[in-house]
Amino acid sequence: MGSQADGSNGPPLEAHSTRQPAPDIETAGDGVAAAPTGLADTARRLKAIFVGSAGNLVEWFDFYAYSAFALYFAKSFFPDESQTAQLLNAAAIFAVGFLMRPVGGWLFGHVADRHGRRLALTVSVMMMCFGSLIIAITPTYATIGVAAPIILLLARLIQGLSLGGEYGTSATYLSEMAHPDHRGFYSSFQYVTLIGGQLLAMLVLLTLQNLVLTPEQLEAWGWRIPFAIGALLAVVVYFMRRDMHESDAYLAARAAGVKESPLRGLMQHPREVAIVVGLTLGGTVAFYTYTTYMQKFLVNSVGLSKDTSTIIAASTLFLYMCLQPVVGAISDIVGRRAVLLTFGVLGTLLTVPILTALENTHSAWTAFFLIMAALVIVSGYTAINAVVKAELFPTRVRAMGVGLPYAITVALFGGTAEYVALYLKSIGHESAFYWYVSACIGVSLLVYAGMRDTRRHSAMDRHI
After folding, report:
1. Is the dihedral angle over the CA atoms 29, 32, 36, 41 positive or is it negative?
2. Residue 432: count of CB within 10 angstroms of its CB
3. Residue 284 has pLDDT above 90, yes or no
4. What 3-state DSSP class applies to 429?
5. Which of 148, 158, 186, 272 shows the smallest number of beta carbons within 10 Å?
6. How far apart are CA 41 and CA 35, in angstroms?
7. ∠ CA(94), CA(388), CA(268), 5° rounding?
8. What is the rounded distance in angstroms from the CA atom of residue 165 to the CA atom of residue 445?
9. Which of 178, 202, 451 is nearest to 325 (CA)?
10. How many CB atoms are located within 10 Å of the residue 270 CB?
11. Is 82 exposed, middle or buried (0-12, 13-18, 19+ CB in 10 A)?
12. How far apart are the C-alpha atoms of 327 and 387, rounded to whole Å?
């Protein structure tokens, strides 16, 4: 991928190390004044990171409630077929939702880079609210026929558009608001809240399964509850984000007066765009394999019950969530590249053995430990991928640079991982999927081996 992280554009990135102090800029209108320092500055950063992370959690909860409850609502939207066929149809709409993420990455990246991170994050959470509300109130196939899956598809497209904007903007915002010496640690909270959103969806499912509703009630109407909860939480986050701090980096870039289109500016950084695509490819396939797809895999391939599979998925997600800040902090010490290489090597070598052993076990505890081992490996990607991408781009194109190439890659590979797995199972070649995941990680490993360490060679302090 080359040795110069910003290609031929601008001076070498050594001149922009993350060890330089972050600009202390807070502005109103066109004026620039010093930001708070010391404890006041720390409190300001922590509050901003908390608000940004809370919104991220709610958006991902809304998005992943679909996957967590697909086992219960698939038959409500599709004609009677085999369980695999129904799940395949549900997975197809899950994947189609990802196709809107590049559009969201472009649209909200433009808004964030030209009009501010706060505006982009506020609008995206309200769009997610709207998509969740549609799913919560949509009649079933038995009531309105083919219109039901069409409306479901429309809601997922809206959610995909929202999430496409959320990822790049929140990754940018958290990285910009973090202290330069601890960006790996603080930016890891994007995946803490991303995983937390999945976990919250799982916990809602577990609560409904074991304490509130019967399986018949869940399949009849109980699956609507999480989407209603998600819509309500999104409204709460809207009011939190409406008053959040704008990042100092964005304010500094605005003060510089650059008016160029973010997309046109991004075209000046083809090397960085290629790095984002390459480092994302293997990580996103592995992530969706061991998170959203695992619950279905345990039911459909391993043969465990729905309740047991949900408990395993929820418990592994919780431990996985707790790992993110640890790995992020490690990257602040040893560098980002070493952590990525660890994921790439172990993921390439161990994916096929782990998934093969998982398919052949009938023990819930064995399944738990195998999935947990895989998630420890995947943490080498998820904990730091946001900060690595943010450190590649100058401020004026950062949200677009982080969000758009990432969203395209996730749409092509992450969003389709579950569909590919179910399709290969349906034609009797499930093990081919294991090699597919391993090959995707192997491609990313080549990128990690060729890229520079963004902790030491960062563009975070470049605003134009």
Report:
1. positive
2. 14
3. yes
4. coil
5. 148
6. 7
7. 90
8. 27
9. 178
10. 11
11. exposed
12. 12
Torsion of CA 184, 186, 190, 195, to 10 degrees: 90
Which tens digit of pLDDT belongs to each residue from 211-235? 888 888 888 888 899 999 989 988 8
CA–CA separation, 294 and 421 (whole Å) = 11
Contact in structure between 324 and 176 (CB atoms under 8 Å) = no
d(CA 121, CA 99): 20
- Are residues 218 and 72 in contact, defined by beta-carbon separation less than 8 angstroms? yes
Which residues, 6+ apart, have CB-to-CB distance to 164 below 8 Å? Answer: 100, 101, 102, 103, 104, 105, 106, 107, 108, 403, 407
Question: 10 and 462 in contact (C-beta within 8 Å)?
Answer: yes
Burial grade of 274 (CB within 10 A; 0-12, 13-18, 19 or more): middle
Closest residue by Cα to residue 95 from 416, 424, 425: 416
Using one digit for the tens of pLDDT, what is the confidence trace for 380-425?
Answer: 999 999 899 988 888 888 888 888 898 889 888 987 888 899 889 8
Nearest to 62 by CA among 189, 142, 160, 209: 160
Tokens of 321: 């969530």
| Rounded distance between C-alpha atoms, residue 276 and residue 447, angstroms | 9
Strand ranges (E), 210-313: none
Q: Which residues contact 188 (CB under 8 A, 6 or more apart)?
A: 324, 325, 327, 328, 329, 383, 384, 386, 387
In angstroms, the CA 353 to CA 202 distance is 27
Helices (H), 69-116: 70-77, 83-99, 101-115
Joined tokens for residue 379: 């943490």
Q: Is the pLDDT of residue 435 over 90?
A: yes
Q: Tell me the C-alpha distance between 350 and 302, whole Å.
A: 19
Interatomic CA distance for residues 33 and 25, integer angstroms = 6
d(CA 211, CA 351): 36
Q: What is the pTM of this model?
A: 0.77
Question: Which residue is it, tokens 């430990």?
Answer: 369
Q: H or E segment at 235?
A: helix 225-241
